[in-house]
Amino acid sequence: MEYVQAGDAEIPELGLGTWQNTGQSCAETVETALELGYRHVDTAQMYGNEAQVGEGIERSSVDRDDVFLTTKLDRGNLEADDARESFEESLEKLGTDYVDLLLIHWPHPRVPFEETLGVMDELHDEGTVRHIGVSNFTPAQLEEAMGITRAPIVTDQVLYNPYKDQSDLHAFSLESDVALTAYSPLGRGDAISDSMLAAIGERYDKSAAQVALRWLVQQENVVAIPKATSREHLEANLAIYDFELTRDEMERIATLDGGIKRRIWNRFPGLMRRIPF
Ligand code: NAP
């Protein structure tokens, strides 16, 4: 497993996403993923699967200390008391006495960052949170958060895939020693049937999904957390370290952003104006 260094954290570059994977399927997926070599699992209070993620880790033969476990404070739990109380519930559900990374899931317009980040700093001091970070923060919001905390903000987890340009945030995160964690790295499935990604993959005997993931992790400071349920998909997503995209291929894949965005913009301009990034 490759790692991304950010602040005082070493984050496994490829993690397992678990959104919409619930119940026993989730516990089984986490157990299988760890057996296959994954060492990074991403969950959230909102996903309703923290207990099953904990069960999967417990059932696997991998030591808890060897797993980089992330959870996120729900948008409704960002006031100080709620943040602390809900985090304690998360620990209980996860069956662990610490998480490796705690994120603010989404900024809340009416809860000042200081309020939540203050509690996260305390939890970090107390040792129940090893690292802190944010999610769905713009570069300006990330910069503001970095000016508030004592502990380093080690990542901003955002939508990032070949259809979503994040070059501003990526440039800012690189100069700020913050990892960019790419969620929905497969475009929630869009990348799987992408003809350009498939054509590039043919040269390496790789699928379009594998090319999309390789494109992400080949960028400095980028972590990707694809969600996969089946053993086949879990294995395929790990098998992206035996080939390297050329500079030209990296640049061509980046042009996909303009394509799909323009198509959605043409169909739903009102909707696109309401999406912040
Ligand atoms: P995604 O990872 O972009 O795509 C998941 C889809 O791709 C699933 O349908 C999965 O199918 C399929 N898939 C996975 N590997 C494949 C492969 N090798 N070949 C073909 N299909 C494959 O979508 P996502 O779940 O939206 O994002 C990933 C993770 O990011 C989430 O699970 C969550 O942990 C995190 N996330 C965070 C936020 C946030 O606000 N911070 C928002 C969204 C997501 P199977 O399940 O059948 O394998």
Give the helix/strand layout.
Elements: E1 3-6, E2 9-12, E3 16-17, H1 23-36, E4 40-42, H2 50-59, E5 68-73, H3 80-94, E6 99-104, H4 113-126, E7 129-135, H5 139-146, E8 153-159, H6 167-175, E9 179-183, H7 195-204, H8 208-217, E10 222-224, H9 231-238, H10 247-254, H11 256-267, H12 269-274
Parallel strand pairs: 3-4, 4-5, 5-6, 6-7, 7-8, 8-9, 9-10
Antiparallel strand pairs: 1-2
The site of NADP nicotinamide-adenine-dinucleotide phosphate has 27 residues, from α9.
Strand order of the largest sheet: 3-4-5-6-7-8-9-10
Share of residues in strands = 15-25%
Q: Please identify the oligomeric state.
A: single chain
CATH superfamily annotation: NADP-dependent oxidoreductase domain
Order of helices and strands: EEEHEHEHEHEHEHEHHEHHHH
| Hetero ligands | NADP nicotinamide-adenine-dinucleotide phosphate
Individual helix count = 12
Biggest beta-sheet profile = 8 strands, parallel
Low-confidence stretches: none
Mean model confidence by pLDDT: 94
Shape call: globular
Overall number of structural domains: 1
Cα gyration radius (Å)? 18 Å
CATH fold-level label: TIM Barrel
CATH class: Alpha Beta
